[in-house]
Amino acid sequence: MPNNQFENNVLAKVKDLKVHFNSKRGVVHAVDGVDFEILNGETLGLVGETGCGKSVTGRSFLRLLPIPPGIIKGGAVNFKANLVCTRCSGRGCSECGKSGHKTEKGEQVDLLKISDTRMREIRGDRIAMIFQDPGKALNPTLTVGAQMAEVFLQHRSLEILDMAGLGQIKNKAILRFAKQDVKLFDKILLLLPKARKQKLKVQEAVKIMVSKALSETQVPNPLKLLDRFPHELSGGMRQRVMIAQALACNPDLLIADEPTTALDVTVEARILELIRELQLKRKTSVLYISHDLSLVRRICDRVAVMYAGRIVEIGKAEEIFANPSHPYTRGLMAAVPSNGIPRGSLSAIKGTVPELIDPPDSCRFSGRCPYEVNGCRVNDPKLRKITESHSVACFINDASLSWCAPSFEEERV
Amino acid sequence: MTNPPQSSNITITKDSAFSVKINRFLALLQRLLSNPTTVIGLIIIGLMLSMAIFAPWITTANIPDPYQMPRDWGAVRKPPGEMGYLLGTTNEGGDVFYGIVWGSRTSLQLSIYVVGSTMIIGTIIGSIAGLLGGWVDEVLMRIVDVFLSIPELIFALAIAAVLGPSFTNIIIALSLVIWVKYARIMRAQVLQIKQNDFVDAARIVGDSKFNIYIKDILPNAVTPVTVQATLDMGNVVLIGATLSFIGLSEAGIAEWGVLVSEGQAGIASGRWWASTFPGLMIFLWALAFNLLGDGLRDALDPRLEDR
Q: 3.40.80.10, 3.40.50.300, 2.60.120.1440, 3.40.50.720: which CATH number matches A10-136+251-306?
């Protein structure tokens, strides 16, 4: 697709993504034509109420949707990995000519269409994810060490072997052990004294890598943490483990699905700081899914506001917060409690997110919108640019229409 | 990150994963032993097991087949405690004590074969149904429903009757009846665990489906299956004894159900011992495994783990 090539600074581009879910009462249009791009190294905030399709959008990057009942109805998630040399993870080794990058240019792939094997290579290595509830995202039967080891064994087996001083080893059983692909016969081979010693060496190398990754998330005494089970840790600690696991392979894109919702405020601040710090260090892009506008304002470079399976407003964070141009964005902002607002006057958007079963061809926000005019009920607004970096899907102030609603200011005065 | 450490820096410490497993097992044991009823169950099971293991030393094995009751036609209907017959003899001159000791072996065989095979088959089928879902799940679960629709005892009875009276056939009949329970439990567990974030997290890491099943789903799903298996160790002997009592195992075999059936003709005429002692053994066996099963369920409950 030559006409579809990215500009250099774009990491991923979602084009007209449509994810639907079959339900007993009809087809739910959970994500219905979403377009946005993620630039290299930026933090893009994805905000909206519950049930707007934020998480589904985020998860489609990793093809983590329950299919069936989900169907990917159309669109593409194009992604161009900055291929880092897997042997040295960017540190520079003989194989990649000290550049840290693979010789071939990262090719652009459609994450929705590539094979499962390719997808598995990308998952955890190039794109990683942090979940909302760290208590549920760690396997209760595995120790922290064993759990984190999986990432390295899956994507960094050559590096592990190098580290264990077994770089040139020919023993297939050990090679497979380092790739976490042990066959039944290998288990017997690994019992031989020499292989057993090599196996322990590999395990030790993995341990060192894991504790290094953990120490980057400022966990006190990472070596001690390795043999503990998730239920023995606090919430903040668990989220740190998740972050360490997600960032272990220096991914290009980190999808953070409300990573601090389950944490208390002080821990939240520290975790956010940590993500920010690691992101700057590694030049990782972050897709930050949240419903918390004040938080998004603090940490995001750009913000996309989602409503009912669509992006209704997207732009730089300052622009959006200085000049919210969609009634929904305004409603969300008015609902955020802040210092200036007197007690009891907190406003909420009336109504709830509509059910997305076979939605009509109208503005999705009509019915809840205070600025609604007749045309909103029969026309479907598309995203249009109001400045170079700021787009909105609303008829308000749309000069090309004769029937458009009055602008916010006129209405208010 | 700095340069990777040289290989000389790597020192092999002890296999820590192994010691973690040991510690976990010890903690489980401690929780198990803190419950007095579980301890009682464990003691009874321990005594039964040692009786089964040391059977040839406790009594002289019958030649050629030790699982057949020895017949002493000169000493029929002896009451308990009489010269050499500790628990008396049956109408046919079978030593009740011998039957009880060797019967513990038959019972153990029965429960291990039946529970072992059904647990494996049920776990595999339940996992397949839960993991694949769709029409595979639908077909497998409808088959399970058919099996579940007939009461356990009656179904086992029918199968054993069709296959003919033998101890092996009782094992087969019970296995055919019981596997569905495990399939059901396993499917429900897999479906529930599949929803968890940590399964998604493992997928995100790039794990293969098989690895995810082995590492994330199976270990979290085995608890109810283990508890059910422990309870079934007792129940199987109970049903097995019922089938034997009706006469669906070989006559003359050293089995508690057969002994009870042999002795029941004498109860009316006051010879209570031939039925009572083996009946007591069946009761104790089922009770002990039920106590242990309850204890295991409490001890394995992850919510109680920290207490």
A: 3.40.50.300
Render each residue's pLDDT in chain A as its tens digit; 413 residues: 344 555 667 778 888 888 888 878 778 888 888 888 888 778 888 888 777 888 888 888 888 877 777 787 778 788 777 655 555 555 555 555 444 555 444 667 777 777 777 777 778 778 888 888 777 888 888 888 888 888 888 777 777 777 767 666 766 777 777 777 777 777 777 777 777 777 777 777 788 888 888 887 777 887 778 888 888 888 778 888 888 888 877 788 888 888 777 777 777 888 888 888 888 877 788 888 888 888 888 888 888 888 888 888 888 888 888 888 888 888 887 777 766 666 666 666 777 777 777 777 777 777 777 777 777 777 777 777 878 788 888 777 666 665 555 555 544 43
Domain boundaries, chain A: 10-136+251-306, 142-225
- Cα B256 vs. chain centroid, distance in angstroms? 17
Q: How many angstroms away from the CA of B142 is the closest CA of chain A?
A: 21
The shortest C-alpha distance from B138 to chain A (Å) reads 15
A138: left (phi over 0), alpha (psi -120 to 50) or beta: beta
B180, containing H or E segment: helix B167-194
Q: Please report residues of B whose CB lies closer than 8 A to that of A201.
A: 7, 10, 12
- Cross-chain CB nearest to B17 (options A132, A146, A163): A146
Residues 294-333 of A with CB under 8 A from B: none
Q: Which of B4, B198, B206 sits opposite A136 (nearest CB)?
A: B198
User: Where on the phi/psi map is residue A48: left (φ > 0), alpha (ψ -120 to 50), or beta?
Assistant: left
CA-based nearest residue to B5, from A222, A164, A91: A164
Q: What is the pTM assigned to this prediction?
A: 0.76
